[in-house]
Design brief:
Length: 602
């Protein structure tokens, strides 16, 4: 049985494909369109999945979409009666519902000459999230939690998973959402783009939660793990919030009302300097988010008393909160699949249909490498076409037959302070670079953040960089660590190790590790092992291979990124491309040339 899973007409549009319950391919549309968080119908991701499976659209038995606009009809009508929203908001919602019911038409338009003969399934949004969390996990039974902005008129759902079934037992409905709260505070702090919440997480440790009591006015904790927003601080329940889900980057107008500025002070303009007040608001927003999550988790634990928690939804990407779950709750094991946000709903919808059809339990997802791969022939053709350009830019090209030698050479370059583009194997599924499309540096260098931002990233200086660490050594460097193959938890770096790896240790002594297993990514494990043998440090700094764009997908995109930035070395499979001026140890840029944005305030 072939099932095509889709996240469509929403940010992070994506597709995945299952064959007899096993994942064959999965990718976000943004990687092909080259527009971050691309929203719309994921036709190019679908085309990739079909190519990877070696099939055509006519071979697909089922298409599963992670949205069912028909659910919660009575609750929708009750909301209209209570709040009497603007007519434009009502008409806009009905328009979106019509679009989401036309998947067969979209497939026909995108794949001319191919006929989809299967069945379209509308899977309720949070059921898809819960299915993606539980059925991809190693757990035979677990409590399951979905937490995000909104989907199908709800923001939160929890229940339990047992063998081949997920049961939803509790929901929080529109207009109440802790995800929307966090997004509104993100906007207030001057980060307007979809997905900017991770910036608030990075900023929070620089402040103190002095606004926490004020923010508690926005969210009321209720019995049984539920919560409610004070809607006077928000606009989404009454007004049409301008946004665009059709064929481009998702765009949102402000979600908060003037009352929030009255409570916290004026909103920060995107280019305004960050002050202590902004640090403290970020710290307070994160603290309140964690309070609400703890409240929910206590209710979930009281209901099920299961040691395992499978967690999904956009809020499951709050890696700071995730890292505290095993310390602040009774849950002993946490699983967050790599595409926990809305992209992963495509996987969950497909898995839900597979299990509803009586399919057996799928193999747990223990790695994230489900995107396109490119072989030596692809790389050789690219380099042949770019020989003149590479020579003109003083680049040397070396081919390696021995992977161990390539890893030793690359590890030596990392230890010398160089910035390495690492492109190998299948592209990662989800928002994190996990050793297939990564930029790598030495975690021991205190100056590496400034160096990396100067050469490539040009991002805010308060944002931390993360490590990839050999799984067998992770407990020696991080406290309270379990397997975190997808970089989904922020954990304390052991105090005696922090000075050894300042580049990946945040201001609060934390880091967001990826534990690397040999069987999941042999080449990446070998590279880190070579660095360990050379330095005694079993990790490398790992950030996404991009420059203010989606993570690179193809060798061409990797080479273009290398050539337009000041990256020192590019590894494409078994080929190493090096700028000649990087033969010696890397030096810091002069301060007047550094692009790093210093953090204002104390």
């Amino acid at each position: 049985m072939i099932i095509l899973g889709l996240n469509a007409y929403h940010a992070d549009a994506a597709a995945c494909l299952l064959r007899d319950g096993q994942i064959v391919a999965a990718a976000e549309e943004e990687r092909f369109r080259r527009i971050k968080h691309w929203a719309g119908f994921p036709s190019q991701a679908i085309a990739y999945c079909l190519r990877e499976a070696g099939i055509g659209l006519g071979d697909v038995d089922h298409a599963a979409v992670n949205s069912d606009p028909r659910v919660h009809r009575l609750e929708r009508l009750a909301h209209l009666a209570r709040h009497r929203p603007d007519l434009s908001l009502v008409l806009d919602r009905f328009s979106n519902r019509r679009k989401r019911l036309s998947v067969a038409d979209e497939l026909a338009a995108a794949f001319a000459g191919q006929r989809f003969k299967g069945t379209v399934h509308q899977v309720e949004h949070h059921l898809a999230h819960l299915a993606s969390a539980f059925f991809a996990s190693p757990f035979q039974e677990a409590a399951v939690l979905s937490l995000d902005g909104f989907g199908d008129f709800s923001s939160t759902a929890w229940g339990s998973g047992h063998a081949g079934a997920v049961t939803v037992e509790k929901r929080v409905l529109f207009p109440h959402s802790i995800g929307l709260f966090y997004q509104a505070l993100t906007q207030h702090l001057g980060f307007p783009h979809y997905g900017d919440e991770y910036k608030v997480m990075g900023l929070a440790p620089y402040g103190k939660p002095v606004f926490l009591d004020r923010l508690r006015r926005l969210v009321r904790l209720e019995a049984g793990g539920t919560f409610a927003l004070d809607l006077s601080y928000f606009r989404h329940h009454r007004e049409k919030i301008a946004f665009d889900w059709q064929g481009g980057a998702p765009v949102f107008a402000p979600l908060y009302s003037d009352a929030l500025e009255g409570l916290l002070g004026p909103a920060r303009a995107p280019n305004e300097a960050l002050t202590e007040r902004h640090h403290d608001i970020a710290s307070s927003a994160q603290a309140l988010f964690e309070e609400v999550l703890d409240h929910i988790l206590q209710a979930v634990w009281d209901k099920y008393r299961l040691p395992n928690l499978a967690f999904a939804g956009g809020c499951a990407l709050n890696s700071v909160a995730n890292g505290k779950i095993r310390r602040t709750s009774a849950f002993r094991h946490l699983y967050v699949q790599p595409a926990a946000g809305d992209a992963g709903g495509s996987l969950g919808a497909a898995l839900a249909v597979w299990h509803q059809s009586g399919g057996h339990r799928s193999t747990p997802m223990d790695h994230a490498y489900w995107g396109p791969a490119y072989g030596p022939d692809d790389i050789d053709r690219l380099l042949a076409a770019e020989t003149v350009k590479l020579a003109a830019m003083d680049c040397d090209i070396r081919h390696f037959e021995d992977e161990a030698e390539l890893c030793r050479e690359t590890a030596s370059a990392i230890a010398a302070g160089h910035v390495i583009g690492w492109f190998d194997g299948r592209m990662e599924w989800g928002p994190r670079a996990l050793g297939s499309r990564s930029i790598l540096c030495d975690p021991r260098r205190a100056d590496i953040k400034q160096l990396l931002n100067h050469k490539i990233k040009r991002r805010e200086s308060f944002r931390p960089f993360a490590p990839s660490i050999l799984a067998e050594h992770a407990a020696d460097w991080f406290e309270d660590i379990d397997a975190v193959p997808f970089m989904t938890e922020v954990l304390p770096v052991r105090p005696d190790k922090r000075a050894l790896v300042p580049a990946i240790t945040h201001v609060d002594g934390s880091g967001r590790p990826q534990t690397v297993q040999r069987q999941a990514n042999p080449a990446y494990h070998a590279l880190i092992s070579a660095f360990f043998a050379l330095t005694g440090v079993p990790m490398v700094l790992n950030t996404s291979f991009n420059e203010n764009e989606p993570i690179v997908c193809t060798p061409r995109e990797a080479l273009d990124c290398f050539l337009r930035t000041r990256m020192d070395i590019l590894v494409l499979g078994q080929v190493l491309i090096q700028r000649r001026q990087t033969a010696g140890p890397a030096a810091m840029p002069d301060s007047q040339h550094a692009a790093d944005d210093p953090l204002p305030g104390p």
